[in-house]
Give the backbone structure.
Amino acid sequence: MAPKQSHQQRIGDRPAVKYTLITLTLVLTAVLLVVPLVSIFQKAFIDGLAVYWQSLADPDTLHAIWLTLFVALLTVPINLVFGVMLAWSVTRFEFPGRKLLMTLMDIPFAVSPVVAGLLYLLLYGNNGWIGAWLYEHDLQLMFAWPGIVMVTVFVTCPFVARELIPLMQQQGREDEEAAVILGASGWQLFRRVTLPNIKWALLYGVILTNARAVGEFGAVSVVSGNIRGETNTLPLHVQLLYEDYQATAAFASASLLAAIALLTLIFKAFVEWRQERAHRAETDH
Amino acid sequence: MSIRLDNISKTFDKFQALSPMSLNIEDGEMIGLLGPSGSGKTTLLRIIAGLEGADSGRIQFGQRDVTNLHVRDRNVGFVFQNYALFRHMTVADNVAFGLEVMDAKQRPNKAEIQKRVQHLLDMVQLGHLAKRYPSQLSGGQKQRIALARALATKPDVLLLDEPFGALDAKVRKELRRWLRNLHDEIGFTSVFVTHDQEEALELSDRVVVMSNGHIEQVDAPAQLYAQPNSRFVFDFLGNVNVFDAAAQGSRLTHQDAWLETPHQDGKTQAGQLYIRSHELALHPAPTTQAHLPLRVIAVNPIGPEVRVELAPDGWQTEQVWEADLSHADYERHPVQRGDQVFAAPTSGYFFTADSQGSPERLHWS
């Protein structure tokens, strides 16, 4: 009898509350998440597979796909290295401004991407501080792919460090001290001890960085100049097509972004599962 | 290899972790750094290893000045309190690590590394666990693997930070004996940190007692026990009863309580008398030499002894007194909670109030 009684007394476990909450959550998830996602694919395929392929085979669309992948391909490694460096610095060294740095790191999350894009435009545009000098030397960053990469790096730079810092803080520096005492050089230490300890968190950070880099709209739209077939990334291209009343083509491109998002989610779930398993193995004994 | 520390000091921000101190450790010696937390013992160990830099002073290993040598090049073995085994490597890979990261010139070949790892694992009696991961080991096993890993590179000195701190009492004792044997067998110079006096006394050739960033006393365990040179050392080496005394003729007094000093000349001074709990006898009535009325507040049979906790009756002490009686003595005069008894010390150490120096040993017949 006792277990049943305690079961009944558990807070919030009244059937009415329980089923109302579950139903509400499911309905909202369907309305807000599932229906729009499904409708993207439905709209994309509304005129049949042939039209779908045709829309994607359009040279401008292909260029947008290529540019988006290219930007992600540059952004991810840059932020991977930057994130590891940042996490290493703030967790392994004591220096004045360490706390401030950890706060500053979150600026890209706090600031609207459009504002970030504008800032870059003001700095690096032809009339900007640095931009004027660059213009004299015939270097064009804004309204070209370097500008797109720059703002994407800015917008996605906290992801890797955010994942690594708590983990590295929790793991402490003893492993690394042990490795150095045993004679490991800096690189051996990083490759053989630090990296294996953080690899799942690192991969998780990379996935998030990649997802955001592919999907970024606001900051990119400010600095890209929307030149079709030149500086148009996939998210910008979707908007452009839609404004041109090419709804099916717009949705075809959108379906690509949605597919990337779904793949990211699956991969993310897998990494989370591995991370949890690694963590469990550590704390088991 | 011998270790010579000369005038080593360290401050963290404004906190003086180590006051300038010197210490010589002989080749093949096993030294225990004993002290409460915050006494600077771990800092000293980390300075010897090179994990912390000293603010002043010199460190020598044998004839080699290592003061400014990087940790990597000091050739020390270090066993961390929580072992710091590499969790993603097997036991064998952990032990091999120090050999595998050597410069190509010095590194033994693969077969040689494998042979040495197997030898080390056999030495710590865990050869059968080579393929396991650290998370699959017990605390005692992890400790042995950490030791094998530290010894793999044939270090000049072996440093251990609270080596048995995280283990339960039985395993701790076993490992302690095992480490002592291994030390006697191989003869490495080692320094370990502990806050457990029993561990320090049992394991070390000499014990370095530390408090507040300086060395209180360096002595062999027997010597340390027989002649603690300060109140701190006395307090730290096991339980002690303190009698705050004023001088009155040939007597030491405290309110209703008094003790006749065994001095021939009958000269006394004010000070504190330290009496070890097993050097205190309990009587049903005062003796001619001592009048220390106490009330029994607890009787605990612990192993070979009966520990009687006592509160002063008609006078005061800072802490509860304890008397450790043999079962035979206890059975001769059994006492119960609430009984009044009279204590008489058989020997004690007297610290005069005005000096910080060594105590005077007193014996009562």
Remarks:
- Chain B touches chain A through 28 residues (CB under 8 Å).
